[in-house]
Amino acid sequence: MLMAVKNQARCTFLAIKYGIVKEMLNRVSFITNITFMILNNASMLIQWIVLYSLKDNIGGYTFKEIMLLWGLAASTYGFSHAFFYSSFKLSDTINKGKLDAFIVQPKNVLLNAITTHVSSSAFGDLIFGYLMVFIYGFSFKLFFLFTFFTITGGLIIVAFAIILGSLAFFMDSSELIADNGNNLIVHFATYPDGIFKGFVKLILFTIVPVGIANYIPLQVLINFDIVKFLIVLSLTIFFISLACLIFKLGLKKYSSTNLMSARI
Amino acid sequence: MTAIKVENLSKTFKVKVKDKGLKGSIKSIFKPKYKEIKAVKDISFEVEKGEIIAFIGPNGAGKSTTIKMLTGILFADEGNVEVLGISPNKERKKLAYEIGTVFGQKEQLWMHLTPYDNFKFFGAIYDIPNSVAEKRIENLKMLFELEEFMDTPVRNLSLGQRIRCEIVASLIHEPKVLFLDEPTIGLDPVVKENIRALIKRMNKELKTTIFLTSHDVGDIEKLCKRVIIINHGRIVLDDSMEHLKYNYLNKKIIEVKMKEKVNLEDEPGITILKDKGYNLKIEVDTKDKNVADVIKLLDPDKIIDINISNIPLENIISDIYKNEEK
To answer: Does one domain contain both B117 and B168?
Structure first.
């Protein structure tokens, strides 16, 4: 069992490594993508500077805390897209029969299928996230917690993408639903939860799990709370398990295709 | 020893259908209609260890669906499949260590990596220690003559070189059964010939069981000793290559160049395929007329040149498909 986990980890590591190698083939494009993503994220903060010049507190957060929120939103997005970019293309992978290559290999189909591509610009998001930590006020505790929540939040985003992508097993033309759902979680992550009330807030903590990926972790980063920390950890495990289960059920319905395809 | 055992295997796909035009599209949103396509209907066969078998049929016959059920890609609706005694759906990972697959239409290699890096990656996929993987890569590199382009990214290789690399990648874990789904698709005749020679050598040296689907009659004729023909999801023929030729090669093609014109119309057992005055191409049904009689009819003194050949296997197979459809 331990050996199997070790071997799977070796494959996943190699797949991600080769994905990064591919992105780095064009050095200029790699560096430009990262730099522009950092600038792009920074430009988004301008609207908040304007808003905070009018008001000291929005949705219960100060400007510094909003910067941390943006940092976490960027780093969770960056983590998920940097290492598991293919999970956001899962519908396409399923619809075009590209899972065949992974099914005939003696490894975890899902993990192999979601680690074939790397997004270079997502590294820019990750860097931006940590820049925000330094601006907010660096401490080892904050750094550790931020890294921890970057991983849990990133994994929740990936799990959500897998659930949406797996719809392709059960229905036609599900790509649009998956794309919209994935955009939804990213957009909501950049607003403070205090501005949402009632039903919308309920949705954001359940169906679109941005609350678990970003809102609760942000509260823990600002004021550490062990209960909330454990809730995030438990719900991350829950969402990953749910995504794996739905994918596994869907795999039984996989119909493949004979479309010409290449692993590019 | 049985390598592949298939019993009463069936697979049905549910496909959405819609009426023509925009109206049909709108209607299908509110009231979707589906039809069932029975891709594979109750097929059974066995393949012995070390055998090279051709599994052929026209487009949409059910070849790829069957191969995908044998490799664990698709779940069967009914029936039982065992490859080396392992159920592809129940023990997918266990089976994957024992089989190799090459899908001519789908590439498994990473395009931006060199063949060497790809093979190393496949070595990791199959948990092969680095030192063992290196040795195998070295052996396969010699066997498949890959030295020249081992350090060239796959995307820069020719199609033939790429297919050779695909086959090597599927052999890195020394599979006992190799599934080849149209491995020579799109290749030129010289490369096809090379690939066939390599497959034959692999079967001989490594005793690999080979399950081959192809539309190329050359692949079948030159590689396989047994043929299974599938059409409309059913097996229409399961016979040795020798029997297939013996039973269906009762027709001969005679191409002849004559000194004088000759009239063979209305002769029983003879069909004129081409008549260009002194050059004649005829098909002789040896059940009705033997070749010697035809030569007598032509008059040997008037023959300048003659060529007698078998009917191409391609025509035999297409006749079998057509008869099945009737």
So the answer is: yes
**pLDDT greater than 60 at residue A261:** no
Number of domains in chain B: 2
- Exposure string (b/e) for A97-125, b if CB count within 10 Å is 16 or more? bbbbbbbbbbbbbbbbbbbbbbbbbbbbb
For A106, the closest of B74, B93, B105 (CB atoms) is B93
* Residue B115 is assigned to a structural domain of this protein: yes
The Cα–Cα gap between B188 and B185 comes to 9
Which residues form the domain of B156? Answer: 2-16+39-246
Chain B residues inside the 8 Å CB shell of A105: 96, 125-126
Q: How many CB atoms lie within 10 A of CB A253?
A: 14
Give B108's contacts in chain A (Cβ within 8 Å): 101, 263
Same domain flag for B147 and B235: yes
Cβ neighbors of B170 (< 8 A, separation 6 or more) are: B100, B101, B102, B108, B178
Q: B21: Cβ–Cβ under 8 A, 6 or more apart, which residues?
A: none
Query: What pLDDT is stored for residue A25 in this prediction?
Result: 84
Computed from CA positions of residues B311, B315, B320, B325, in that sequence, does the dihedral angle turn out positive or negative? negative
pLDDT at B290 over 80: yes
pLDDT for A219: 95
Taking an 8 Å cut-off on Cβ atoms, the answer to whether A262 and B106 are in contact is yes
pLDDT of residue B313: 67
Minimum Cα–Cα distance from B178: chain A residue: A104
Q: For position B256, which CATH number holds?
A: 3.30.70
HEC-encoded secondary structure of A196-258: CCHHHHHHHHCCCCHHHHHHHHHHHHHCCCHHHHHHHHHHHHHHHHHHHHHHHHHHCCCCCCC
Separation CA A146–CA A140 (nearest Å) = 10
Which contiguous run of DSSP H or E holds residue B164?
helix B159-171
The burial class, CB within 10 Å (0-12 / 13-18 / 19+), for B101 is buried
pLDDT band for position A174 (50/70/90)? Answer: confident
Residues B175, B266 within the same domain: no
Q: Is A198 on the interface with B (CB under 8 A)?
A: no
Residue B49 belongs to a domain: yes
Residue of B283, B306, B229 lying closest to B45 (CA atoms) = B229
The position carrying tokens 């795999």 is A251
Residue-wise pLDDT tens digits, B187-215: 778 778 888 888 888 888 888 999 998 87
Sign of the CA dihedral running A10, A16, A19, A20: negative
Instruction: Tell me the two tokens of residue A94.
Output: 């399923």
